[in-house]
Amino acid sequence: MTWGCALRCWKTSSTLIVYVLLENILRVLLRIVGWILIVVIAVVGGAAWWLFVRPLPQVDGTASLAGLQHEATIERDNWGIPHIRAGALADMAEAQGYVSGGA
Asked: Do the Cβ atoms of 65 and 94 come closer than 8 Å?
């Protein structure tokens, strides 16, 4: 009876040890996969911002352009269409180039 109990307890404890080891390995693997997933999401989000949001034109605020002789104003309507007002034709052309993305 003592040997039978020892064998049964040994099998049970070894099975328990295997389950504990597997559980710890799975926990570590899930942590690694989770961190890799977080890093991938951050990199993809940063790349998306870099490619799609950063290149958008400035549509509000003020900017100074070298080469303007008079003041030029650019106002955008509700649809984003620019309306340019300038003191001289050359200044209007410079502002048009800025709005078109030449700056």
From this structure: yes
User: How much is the pTM?
Assistant: 0.51
User: Which whole-number Å values give the CA distances from 13 to 5, 6, 22, 48, in the listed order?
Assistant: 12, 10, 14, 52
Taking CA 53 as the corner, what is the angle to CA 62 and CA 46, rounded to the nearest 5 degrees?
A: 130
SS3 13: helix
> What's the full length of the chain, in residues?
103
Residue type for 100, please?
S
pLDDT at 1: 46
Report phi then psi at 85, rounded to 5.
Answer: -125, 130
Find the helix or strand (DSSP H, E) in which 50 lies. none
Question: What angle (nearest 5°) sits at the alpha carbon of residue 63, between those of residues 59 and 56?
Answer: 35
Q: What angle do CA 40, 41, 45 make, to 5 degrees?
A: 115
76: β partners: 82
pLDDT in tens, 9-44: 555 667 777 777 888 899 999 999 999 999 999 999
